[in-house]
Amino acid sequence: MREEYRTLAMGVEASGEFEDRRSRFIAQIRRVESEREAQDFIDEVRSRHHDARHNVPAWVLSDGRERCSDDGEPSHTGGTPTLEVLRGAGLADVCCVVTRYFGGTLLGPGGLKRAYTAATQEAVSAAERDGALVTMGLCTRVTCVIPYSSYGRVERLVSDCGGRVKDSVFAEDVQLTIAFRSGEEARFVDAMRELAAGEDLCIVGEPTFAEL
After folding, report:
1. Torsion over CA: 102, 103, 105, 109 (sign)
2. For residues 43 and 126, what is the distance between their CA atoms, to the nearest angstrom?
3. Which residues 6+ apart lie within 8 Å of 65 measured at CB?
4. What are the start and end residues of each CATH 3.30.70.240 domain in the chain?
5. CATH 3.30.230.30: which residues of the chain?
6. Residues 65-98 pLDDT 10s
7. Of 50, 127, 163, 209, which residue has the fewest beta carbons closer than 10 angstroms?
């Protein structure tokens, strides 16, 4: 499993288009987190473009699984170049479906590879321009309860240690939930122990994937 990867923001669909000799290639990319979600998106695009000659899918998951299909195009001219663009962009947990509307002229294997590559690259570039790509990585959450008098000092310590406060609960004391890149939380926990004269104020969670 990857320690860090890029993916589309949740709920976003990016698209890009390329045309060659009147054949239109429309690439559509969405975030997916399982093979089932990838298949659901493929089915949705096929329904959306039911009149197209081909709907070529490729998907990559963060656990290393990946798959592609040429959907009737000559072998390795559609799915493989689409998948290679996703890999080259460092994307995971994404599915791309490239819809082709045939323009009446055969493009040949080389032309098809270039067209599927270009359409997918356009969709990735559009996602980048729109700020729709996010970086996912292993994060560790730390929860601590502190007195109000220490709040400002602990906030600065969080920032100095590279963390982000995800939640604050103000009651008799202040409960903070802080996210760190996994491995970076140790410096904060040690500093908090020193601040509390040896008392452990922090509860450290298990690493999980989250948006960095």
Report:
1. negative
2. 23
3. 35
4. 135-211
5. 7-131
6. 999 999 999 999 999 999 999 999 999 999 999 9
7. 50
